[in-house]
Amino acid sequence: MAETYKLCYFDSRGFAEVTRLQFALKEQKFEDCRWTREEWGPDSKYKKEAPFGQGPYLIYTNNGETVKIGQSHAIACFVGRQLGLYGKTNLDAAVIDQVIGLYKDLIAVWMKLRSQAPDDKDKQEEMKKKLKEEDFPKIFGDFVKLINANPAKSGYFVQNEISVADIYIYDLVYQLKVQDTFDAASKFPEIKTLYDNVDSNPKIAAYVKTRKQTEM
Ligand SMILES: N[C@@H](CCC(=O)N[C@@H](CS)C(=O)NCC(=O)O)C(=O)O
Fold this sequence. Notes:
2 domains, alpha+beta, 4 strands, four-stranded mixed beta sheet
């Protein structure tokens, strides 16, 4: 029996979109299971089914055996390896893992802004300024270092082709831009090139054009 993938998450791009983009790029069929905020709660069948009580989670079946995988990065990396989007060598994988590590650092500082002093407008402004002028440029500069270190000089992180690392950055740049948080492509030419290359891939473009429109 063929392998099947069921990706379960809130009805948003959020932490599931990198995996959805990989499925789209590789034309891998999957069940896109989504729930609304109202459908989520302690008694929700999804929360009970989720390995760690959170979304996203992936239900993967192969040869009659079913496995559930939690944690968005574990899911994205598993799917990346399954679909051949994790580079060709162990060193490629190390580059991809560094990109994901930096991505996590960026999300952590971004989330800190949301959670700290939400009612203190001055503090929020001060933190937003630091994010835009220091934290984000530092981390995007680190992404650029890795792009430039690729011996293939392809504009991607590894080899001459899109990997899960490029998809992470493509999705991140999009999310930051639509939430009016940071326009990385206008500040870093290498990031713009990478973004445009992924965006113009026919399979990615077709998916993005028809994907469900959600706020996040
Ligand atoms: N480290 C986890 C975080 C997952 C997470 O925070 N999920 C949120 C949605 S983005 C969630 O399920 N929230 C509802 C809850 O915790 O009950 C991952 O990367 O998957």
